[in-house]
Each structure stands twice: as structure tokens, then as C-alpha cells.
Amino acid sequence: MEREGRIEGPMIFVGGGSSCSFSIHPDVLTEVMGWRAVNMGGSAGMGYRYLIDLATSRAERGDIVILHLEPAIFRGKEKRMTPLAVKVDLARFPTGLSGGVFEDELYEEPVAELLAALRPGAKFLGTLAAKMVRSGPLYRYQLADIRGNGTLSCKTSAPNPDVGSFKAMRHWLDDGVVQEDLRKLAEYAEERGVMIFFTLPWESFRSEVLVAQRDEHSAYLDGIAEHLPVLRDEMMGAVGDNSLFLDTGYHMTEEGGRLRTRVLAEALKPFSFKEE
Fold it and tell me: Is residue 87 part of a domain?
């Protein structure tokens, strides 16, 4: 990534799954913070190690990384790259492999085995054939869905059906593998002089569970805070206004995403950053 002529101060890299890709507007972060920002979001199907690796891959001393990760992503404790992550990394190959926190683990397998992960399974081929028969789009989202600021969007005419009920999630952090990965992430931040924060995406929940879900999210963030600084806001990742979402309870409309990004920037403001 070209870094010449950068705005004075740290760069902000925000990484995560599709909740990040749809909801975080770099131009809003720059407007509020005065620093250049980049949306490094991908898809939860890439696995949390690859998403974190990608988010930290271009950060230099004094920069800021915000991990905007769906809590459930820590249920998938993958030690190898997922097929989707391999595909994305092949597309990025001219710029180098991701080179972040988990690079040594993600690329320890032989190249042949990584490429073997790209073999399509029966479910993929069946789904692809059905789409072709219906003359529908082969993939859910297209390049045309990327806005000029690097944030994803999509056209939808129906109300978002994905409104969540209460989800217990703090126990997902009890796993030893996840704990070790969080420790490694904290050590990486200290060694590289990079500030790494964790925050919760906004998700659409039923109004009757909002208070309980926010309490659950708060306890979840307490567990993260044992390793990394967290950015909290009054929504605490549980939103009752379903009109702010598109096709899923994590994918926000442009209005919703800009609001979420502005609130995220305000949560970041109290922290001061000094390059060593």
C-alpha cells in the first residue's frame, strides 16, 4: 500500500468480517479523526486468523488497528487457511502475502496443500449449477457493490429478516486456542508499536432482548479487555432499529454504517497516540 503523502498522524486500519466490509466508512473516520483510514474487511468465511492477519498486515509503528469482529467468529478455531482465504490471498499475491500477526501459522503448510483447499466440493458445485439454471448471479455480491470509499453495499427491496434473539457468547472466549491467539495478538502489538483495539459490530436484535444482550456483550468485552483495549459505545453491539440494516443483521445501510462509524470514531477519540 502506498504510504507517501499520508496525512500526518497514524493510519487507521479496520478489519473484520462482512460486518466491517458493509458498515465501516473510512472517509467518516478521516473526517472525525483527521487521519487516513482504510477498510480492510473481508468475510467471516476467511476465518478469524486470516482476517486479523489482513488487518495488521500493512500497519507500521504508530498506526492503529481496529478489529471489528463478529463474536461468533471465535467459534471457528481454524489452524489452516480456509479455501476462501486462499483464494483472496492468491488475488493479493502481487502485493505480497498478508504478513500480519499469524503469518507464520497461516503459511506453514506446503503450497500444494494450500492450493488443494481450492478444490470445489459437491455442495459448491450443486449450488453453482442451480444458479446457472436460474440464470442468477453466480456470487451474492459483485464488484459493482463496492462504494468509492471501499465499503460494500447491495440492493435490497425487502426488510432485513435477520433479527437476532438473545445470544450467549462469553463462553466462546474460554477456549484455550482463542486465549493463546489473543495473547499473541497483544504481544505483536507491543513488539511492533501498533495500537490494536477490539470493538463489536452493530447487530440487529429484537427489542425485548436488547438490555440482556448488551449485558452479555459487555461481559464478552471484559474477557477481550484482559488482552486488548476495547472500544465500547452505548449500543454495545445490539441495535433495535432494523431499518439500519440491509440483507442480514450485520450488513448496514449507508446511513446505518455512517452512524456506526461516527460512533466508533467518538469511542476512539479519548485515546492519544504518540509515535515512539
Answer: yes
